[in-house]
């Protein structure tokens, strides 16, 4: 456990981050399933976009009017995008700050009986190639928010919904917010999934977010009768450079024990005993203490000293956080106790607390050059396939028509037979440098057979039959076919009167021409 001041940004860079956070710089806010154009939320002023440019599949649906009335101040919950087709459907986010930035990613789901079935589904949520969580609902009106602090492995971030056979997946809202890189650092580098974020003794009975919070975090009010609330309206220290950047209304309130107690206790239960949990606890003294007063306390977790002694600073936030994470006891409990020290005249206090679970993401995604190449191929040919998310991983959701190696993750086979392809053979295919098998048969491709196909050193199978290509077939391709390093399927007219070299004719070498397409699984070999 360390005090946040030990990992603060330099003043210059933090000042830049504060300005950017206040003006929504880098925010991506998507109202999923809306048929409207972009709009500004009346409460937060956040500009929400329709999801047209972020996903290629799904259907727009409106929630029931009954539930819409209950959320009349949250327009982004009035509709959903559902995904009745395909096992995996994804959104692609392209944050402007790139891969070296930590982001808050939040997905919101409210069923609202949009399908008139009265039966909320259960489905899985993935971030990139890694399982994030299972989405389930208590009832039709339940709003489920999943939030994670995450540094992406690649420029594009995929948020994917997976049908597990328990109803049609859907999503209401998807948001991305850039954070300070020092905020929510797990030390291990792994993503942190939010469990709870509490504003203790909150002065409001509503969830606090942007513009109060520059990162648009959701702060839930927490109020109990067994503790005594403290508050202040005094201005906090202007030199407070805590990278967590708590909203004023969060840090100006706190809980302390009643007069008869010298300790406070928070217990989390039903936790996963094999997981590690991270806590970010925020403290600020709200009372101007007299000379004979002292507030000092220790923090323990499951009976072990976690941090202390801690003396909160007056009107200045100190954040104590887990360094490597804490495990629950054998029954799945974590018991946090704040104990007044013998030197202290005042009991402990706490202003706010955030708890997270460490996610073990593999980040084993398809090689970026292969991803760029296959997306360019998709764009060139206007392919109408559910090619979303990572092409190769997870293996169970690999793109249709592809085969991959997995150490490393590279595309090694591409089958676009019977795909309605038009135009020439795309040069982007050459960027799939590890490709071993290419099937472009039975399309409407035209133009010459490109030289680069003969220069793809790993290519061992090439099927161009059933197109409108023009000859000649490049000599390098024919030579590889004759020496046995390439199995080649082309229409007869492309090889008429061709020779391999000045010393030999094609008729003296072996060449394969199928009577049927490769997808039929039956080939007749001719020796020409």
What are the defining features of this structure?
disordered N terminus; 8% helix; mainly beta; twelve-stranded mixed beta sheet; disordered C terminus; 528 residues; single chain
Category from helices, strands and their pairing: mainly beta
Number of strands: 33
Radius of gyration over C-alpha positions, nearest whole angstrom: 30 Å
User: Mind summarizing the main beta sheet?
Assistant: 12 strands, mixed
Q: Whole-number average pLDDT?
A: 89
Span between N and C termini?
76 Å
Q: Give the % helix.
A: under 10%
- List segments where confidence is low: pLDDT < 50 over at least 5 consecutive residues: 1-22, 499-528
Helix count equals 5
Write a compact overview of the structure shown.
The chain has 528 residues and is mostly beta strands.
Summarize the structure in words:
The structure is a single chain. By secondary structure, this protein is mainly beta. The chain is built from five helices and 33 strands. Strands 1, 2, 3, 4, 8, 11, 14, 15, 16, 20, 23 and 25 form a twelve-stranded mixed beta sheet that branches. It has a five-stranded mixed beta sheet with strand order 26-27-29-31-33, with helices on one face. A hairpin with a 2-residue loop joins β26 and β27 (409-415). The chain is elongated and about 105 Å long. The N and C termini lie far apart (76 Å). Residues 1-22 and 499-528 have low confidence and may be disordered.
């Amino acid at each position: 456990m360390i005090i946040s001041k030990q990992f603060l940004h330099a003043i210059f860079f933090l000042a830049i981050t504060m300005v950017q956070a206040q003006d929504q710089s880098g925010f991506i806010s998507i109202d999923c399933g809306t048929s409207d154009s972009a709009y500004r939320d009346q409460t937060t002023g956040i500009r929400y976009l329709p999801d047209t440019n972020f996903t290629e599949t799904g259907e727009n649906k409106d929630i029931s009017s009954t539930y819409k009335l209950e959320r009349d101040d949250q327009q982004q919950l009035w509709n959903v995008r559902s995904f009745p087709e395909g096992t995996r459907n994804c959104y692609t986010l392209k944050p402007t700050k790139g891969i070296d930035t930590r982001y808050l990613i939040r997905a919101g789901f409210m069923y609202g009986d949009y399908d008139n079935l009265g039966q909320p589904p259960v489905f899985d949520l993935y971030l990139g190639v890694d399982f994030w969580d299972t989405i389930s609902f208590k009832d039709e009106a339940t709003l489920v928010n999943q939030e994670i602090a995450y540094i992406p492995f690649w420029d594009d971030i995929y948020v994917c919904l997976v049908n597990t056979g328990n109803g049609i997946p859907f999503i209401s809202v998807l948001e991305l917010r850039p954070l300070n890189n020092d905020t929510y650092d797990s030390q291990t580098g792994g993503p942190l999934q939010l469990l709870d974020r509490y504003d203790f003794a909150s002065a409001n009975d509503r969830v606090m977010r942007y513009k109060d919070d520059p990162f648009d975090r959701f702060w839930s009010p927490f109020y109990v009768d067994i503790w005594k609330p403290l508050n202040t309206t005094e201005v906090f220290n202007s030199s407070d450079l805590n990278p967590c950047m708590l909203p004023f209304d969060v840090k100006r309130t706190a809980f302390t024990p009643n007069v008869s107690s010298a300790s406070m206790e928070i217990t989390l239960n039903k936790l996963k005993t094999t997981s590690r949990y991270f806590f970010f606890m925020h403290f600020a003294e709200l009372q101007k203490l007299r000379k004979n007063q002292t507030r000092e306390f220790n923090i323990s977790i499951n009976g072990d000293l976690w941090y202390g002694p801690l003396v909160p600073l007056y009107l200045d936030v100190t954040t104590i956080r887990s360094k490597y994470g804490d495990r629950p006891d054998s029954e799945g409990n974590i018991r946090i106790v704040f104990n007044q020290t013998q030197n202290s005249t005042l009991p402990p206090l706490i202003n706010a607390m955030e708890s997270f679970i460490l996610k073990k993401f593999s980040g084993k995604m398809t090689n970026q050059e292969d991803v760029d190449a296959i997306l360019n191929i998709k764009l060139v040919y206007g392919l109408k396939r559910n090619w979303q998310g990572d092409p190769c991983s997870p293996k169970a959701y690999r793109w249709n028509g592809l085969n991959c190696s997995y150490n490393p993750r590279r595309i090694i086979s591409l089958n676009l037979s019977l795909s309605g392809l038009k135009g020439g053979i795309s040069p982007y295919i050459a960027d799939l440098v590890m490709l071993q098998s290419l099937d472009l048969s039975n399309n409407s491709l035209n133009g010459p057979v490109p030289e680069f196909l003969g220069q793809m050193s790993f290519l061992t199978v090439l099927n161009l039959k059933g197109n409108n290509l023009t000859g000649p077939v490049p000599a390098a391709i024919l030579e590889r076919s004759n020496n046995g390093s390439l199995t080649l399927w082309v229409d007869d007219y492309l090889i008429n009167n061709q020779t391999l070299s000045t010393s030999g004719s094609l008729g003296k070498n072996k060449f394969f021409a199928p009577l049927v397409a490769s997808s039929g699984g039956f080939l007749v070999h001719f020796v020409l």
